[in-house]
Amino acid sequence: MLSFLLKRLFSTVVTVFVVLTITFFLMRLMPGGPFSGEKKLNPQVLENLNKKFGLDKPVFEQYTMYLTNIAHGDLGPSMTYEGRTVNEIIGYSLPVSAKLGFVATGFAMLIGVYLGVIAALNQGKWPDKLCMFISTIGITVPSFVIATLLIYVFAIKLQMFHAIGLESPMDYVLPSIALGASSMAFVARLGRSALLDVIRTDYIRVARAKGLSKNTVIYKHALRNSLIPIVTYIGPLLAAVLTGSFVIEGLFGIPGMGREFITSITNRDYTVIIGFVTLDATFLVLSNFIVDILYAVIDPRIKIE
Amino acid sequence: METNTELMKIDSELFERIPDDKKKTDEIVRPSETYLQDAWRRLKQNKLAMGGLVFVILITILAIVGPMLSKYNYYSQNFRIANQNPSGLHWFGTDKFGRDQFVRILYGARISLTIAYVASILNLVVGILYGSVAGYAGGIVDNLMMRVVDVIWSVPSMIYVILLMVILSKPNHPSADGGMLNIIIAMAISFWVVMARIVRSQIMALKEQEFVLAAKVSGASSMRIILKHLIPNSMGPIIVTMTMSVPSAIFTEAFLSFIGLGISAPQASWGSLASEALEGYQLYPYQLFFPAMAICLTILAFNFLGDGLRDALDPKMRK
Fold first, then answer.
1. CB burial class (10 A; 0-12, 13-18, 19+) of residue B179?
2. Which of B48, B55, B149, B151 best probes binding to A when mutated, by most A CB atoms within 10 angstroms?
3. Considering the domain boundaries, does residue A303 fall inside one?
4. Rounded to 5, what percent of chain B is helix, strand, coil?
5. A223 and A286 together in one domain
6. Which residues are within 8 A (CB) of B277 and not within 5 positions of it... i.e. 6 or more apart?
7. Which of A34, A85, A277 is CA-nearest to residue B164?
8. Is A42 a domain residue?
9. Is the domain of A136 the same as that of A62?
10. Nearest C-alpha of chain A: how many angstroms from B292?
11. Are residues A100 and A56 both part of a single domain?
12. Contact (CB<8Å) B259/A26
């Protein structure tokens, strides 16, 4: 177990390092620096700016400088927002996105698993077909269409929710649904097929035969084992929630990381882009690492090499 | 003992010659089917998948010939007929510049589908090459090659696509194709890992089988074994993965256009049409409705087709 952990940890660190390197060199390839905006800058000013951010140094030196800074947890200053650091920008936008992402993930897991259970227990009957229909919609309709529909119907026509912002708990409802819809659909499908597999196993038949009620069998015995494939999906799910949030945050006017990321791309704000990608990648690689371990803990049948 | 008495009762009847007309029971009457014929027969029984296939063919043909048949074109503006509701004259209405929406959606189908198809084919080629080499070579080569895949896999491809789009697109010099080539390149660079993984696992499973050994013994080169034996035998999962990669390419294109990194005006794709319509969707919901419907229906059709193909091509994977 320990050697497995160390091995996985090592590959995690290597992955993060490679991602950092790729991102750094991709950024250097970008046409037009952060200071080549609409109005032409005085050459002297441009030179000073380049000097200030170390852009006049050779690429390799910039690279080592950047790595040392990251090792110290310092992602550098923003290049377009005067006097703000990347750490500050992440500091105020991450909690917003994280909260929304958490609610959306919770929504996706709860409703998804529930739909999956209903579908599996009524295999082939109308509740199954309805659940799978909902799940197909969730998979095929892009999140921005769901989001605009939700805003149009519930915020503008019915006036039940605010169209923009995240002030009250009620404001989380629409963006969470829009953000979690596709994941919910996927969880429902995974849950359905996993539960169908588990229901046919011998130990479930034994549990039924010894007289346990149907609900106990389903929720205490079957569901637990059918959650295993869903757990492995949590990593990609977080990915979907993070990347999906670009659109959702834009549409709902939520000042989170997704919106900041898009802004930083239009502004060619190198340091912010690199910082965000670093954070995203680290977060995801770590979550995959945790899922791998969780997987082994939940299902003792899985042997770790 | 009872069994002995049973044995004793063998009639001479049992040793009679079989009449000639009964011998034919062993004969194979049906013509033998190839793998693809077999798959096609199974696919035809699946109504949803066939519906998906018909829709896919229909929308592809419409995308190719549709814009030529209409009397409108996608770029000419006419402000006197701006923002008109759907009517007999303009089936899907007009946009804020008075351009016919129906033609623009057909034209958008051209771009969206071209991007999706070309990106999928590129993924296919790169993924098969990479995956088969890694899977066949095994050992340290495989290990190194798959580490690269792991790294790309571990970060959402959307982030790479966005970064690549930012690098490739030059905002001040819009290209003639509206950025189509850039999207295709960005997707091809970041999406092939899915295919590479599938191909690798298939090849790993197949390469230990006897027919590969037989080929090796008869002196076939590694190249020949991969191209003539291993890849044709992994065609099922490859075709399914490719079908499924089309909707994700359409999704990505729509998403990129949506955040302003995609197709630029006056060119239109489904994604850019939807994002343009978003400004005024409270007043003119139909402008958003039609491109969104086009995206949803196409993705739905490809998903149904992909599910059906999975069942048809690989009965073992059937749930």
1. buried
2. B151
3. no
4. 75, 0, 25
5. yes
6. B95, B284, B287, B288, B291
7. A277
8. yes
9. no
10. 7
11. no
12. no
Q: Counting one residue from A and one from B, how many pairs have CB atoms under 8 Å apart?
A: 100
C-beta atoms of A242 and B295 within 8 A = no
Does A84 map to a domain? Answer: no
Q: Which of A14, A265, A288 sits opposite B162 (nearest CB)?
A: A265
Does A192 reach chain B within 8 Å, measured CB to CB?
A: no
Distance (Å) from the alpha carbon of B210 to chain A's nearest alpha carbon: 28
Q: Is residue A76 part of a domain?
A: no
Q: Kindly report the pTM of this predicted structure.
A: 0.78
What's the token pair of residue B206? Answer: 């197949």
What value of ipTM does the predicted structure carry?
0.73
What average pLDDT does the segment A251-267 reach?
Answer: 81
Mean pLDDT over B21-26 rounds to 68
Q: What is the DSSP letter of B171?
A: T
Give percent of chain A with pLDDT exceeding 70.
Answer: 90
Query: Percent of chain A having pLDDT more than 90?
Result: 0
Question: Which of A136, A145, A149 to mutate to probe the B interface, most B CBs <10 Å?
Answer: A145
Tell me the mean pLDDT in the region B147-170: 74
What is the per-residue pLDDT across B117-154, written as a single tens digit (0 to 9) for each?
A: 998 899 889 989 898 888 888 788 888 888 888 777 76
Task: Assess whether A212 and A124 both reside in one domain.
Answer: yes
Q: Which residues of chain B approach chain A closer than 8 Å at the C-beta?
A: 147, 150-151, 154-156, 158-159, 162-164, 166-167, 170-172, 247, 251, 254-255, 258-261, 274-275, 278, 281-282, 285, 288, 292, 295-296, 299-300, 303, 319
Mean pLDDT of B290-311: 86
* Shared-domain flag, residues A213 and A101: yes
For residues A174 and A57, state if they share a domain.
no
Of A257, A263, A261, A284, the residue nearest A274 (C-alpha): A261
Q: With contacts defined as CB-CB under 8 Å, which chain A residues touch B256?
A: none
Q: Provide the mean pLDDT of chain A.
A: 79
Residue of B nearest to A17 (CA): B151
The Cα–Cα gap between B314 and A264 comes to 46
Point out the least confidently predicted range of A238-242, B59-63, B160-164, B193-197: A238-242
More confident residue, A275 or B125: B125
Tens digits of residue pLDDT in B240-266: 888 888 888 888 888 888 777 777 767
| Contacting residues of A for B259, CB less than 8 Å apart | 246-247, 250, 262
d(CA B106, CA B108) in angstroms, rounded, equals 5
CATH number at residue A238: 1.10.3720.10
Split into its structural domains, chain A has a count of 2
* Chain B CA closest to residue A156: B282
Residue B34 has a CB neighbour count (10 Å cut-off) of 8
Which residue's structure tokens are 């978003």?
B278
Domain housing A163: 93-298
Residues A135 and A59 in one domain: no
Nearest CA in chain B to A18: B151
pLDDT tens digits for A26-39? 777 766 666 655 55
Q: Do A14 and B147 touch (CB under 8 A)?
A: yes
By the CB < 8 Å criterion, does A304 face chain B? no
CB B308 within 8 A of CB B43: yes
- A62 and A185 inside one domain: no
A305 pLDDT tier (thresholds 50, 70, 90): very low
